[in-house]
Structures are given as C-alpha cells and as structure tokens.
Amino acid sequence: MPSNSPPHEGQKVFPPFEILYDRYHMQIYRYLYTHLKNEQDTADLLQHVFLQAWKHAQSYDPRRGSIATWLLSIARNRLIDFYRVSHSSLSWETIPDITSMEQNPEVRVISQETIAQVRKMLEALHQTEQELLALRFAARLSSAEIAPLIGKSEAATKKQLTRLLHRLQEQYRRDVLEELLPELLEPALPAFVEALLQTYVAPIESAHLNVIRQNLLKLVHTVSF
C-alpha cells in the first residue's frame, strides 16, 4: 500500500515526506527562482524535484553529503533539462554569517536603494560565479554542502566564495557607496551583504506553497516502490 514513508535504505535517513518538504522547500524554491525568475516555472520544477527525490530516496547516501545537497543536485539537473528543452541559457566563509547579521535602519535603506545595482553586478558575473552565489545565498548552503555540487574541496569552495564576495564588496563600494554615502564607506559595507540577500528573495505566497505541498502529498501516496 502506498505510503508517505520512503522505501528501502532511504527509510533510515529520510524523514516522512511532509517533514522533508517543510524543511527544505524554501531552499529549493529560492534556488530555482534565482535562475528562472518565474513563479509558475519555479513551482512546477519544485514539484518535480521533490517527487523525483521521493521516488529515488533509496539512492541517497548520507556519506556523500547532506539531504539538502542531494536535493540541490536534483534541482540543478532539472534546471539543465528545463533549459535544454526551452533552448535558453541559465540566467543568472570566511563569508559573514548572513543569517545572524543584525540589520540597522541605515543598512535597510541602503539595501532598498541599491538592489537594482547589486542585481546588475550579479548579472555581469560569469555563470559559474552566479551559481556559487545562488547556492550560498538563495539555497543557503554551507561551503561544505556546496563543495560536492561543484566538484571542489570544502577549502577551495570557501576560498572561491570568499574572494568573490570580497571582490563584489569592493565593486559595490566603488559603484554605489561612494556616490550615496562617501563619508560612511566602512560602516556601511554590511549593507552589501543585506542587499545581496534581498536580491535572492523569491516572491511566493504561502497559500501557493501549501497548494504545492498538497499536490505533492497526493502524488506521493500514488507512488509505488
């Protein structure tokens, strides 16, 4: 009888489907939306990613990475398939702890005023650099989780992310802060990280995500293993 518990070996490490979706769906959604810039396409691929993951739960090996990393590898492959069919190209540590940074009013104002400039900076990056930032800031993966996805060591991944972020900070300071707040360059630098985070915000209504969740639950219960 179909169940919402995963099959075989996956049962040892996988939570029930509801928990799996609730825990990881926003990471996957933000990552997909970063590339697709379209809510409907993102929602469709999100469903495909979780359904594929559930069908192949037995193939997940925790020794090769976290569940988040495994789900992101599925999401990346689905993106590649999507663009292959549509004949489009992908749009677009010592890194600061972006989840714990406190935001002051000055930073919030700067972020809102400069979000367009930051987006332009990101769009000008090489595709591999865009992907690194999407995995870090949209999917919110750690360097250790990103490393297997891009085929590098954790140390090399952290170094590449750090250098990229520092380079972007300097460009941000030259292009934005010197024009807006020349007397507050150093104190205002955290505004770049906040603006970067806001660039990766994916617009989605909670009601829409609940519909996706319910659709997936129905599909999961029809999957036979």
Number of domains: 2
Count up the helices: 10
Q: What about the largest sheet?
A: none
Percent helix, as a range, is 55-70%
The chain-level structural class is: mainly alpha
Spans with pLDDT under 50 lasting ≥5 residues? 7-11, 90-110, 181-189
CATH architecture field of the largest domain: Orthogonal Bundle
**Beta-strand percent range:** under 5%
Shape: globular
CATH fold-level assignment of the largest domain: Rna Polymerase Sigma Factor, Chain: A
Order of helices and strands: HHHHHHHHHH
Can you identify the CATH superfamily of the largest domain? RNA polymerase sigma factor, region 2, helix turn helix motif
Instruction: Give the CATH class of the largest domain.
Output: Mainly Alpha
Average pLDDT reading: 76
Q: How many beta strands in the DSSP annotation?
A: 0
N- and C-termini, Cα separation: 10 Å
Radius of gyration: 19 Å
Keywords: DNA-binding, Sigma factor, Transcription, Transcription regulation
Protein name: RNA polymerase sigma-70 region 2 domain-containing protein
Family: Belongs to the sigma-70 factor family. ECF subfamily.
Pfam families: Sigma70_r2 (PF04542)
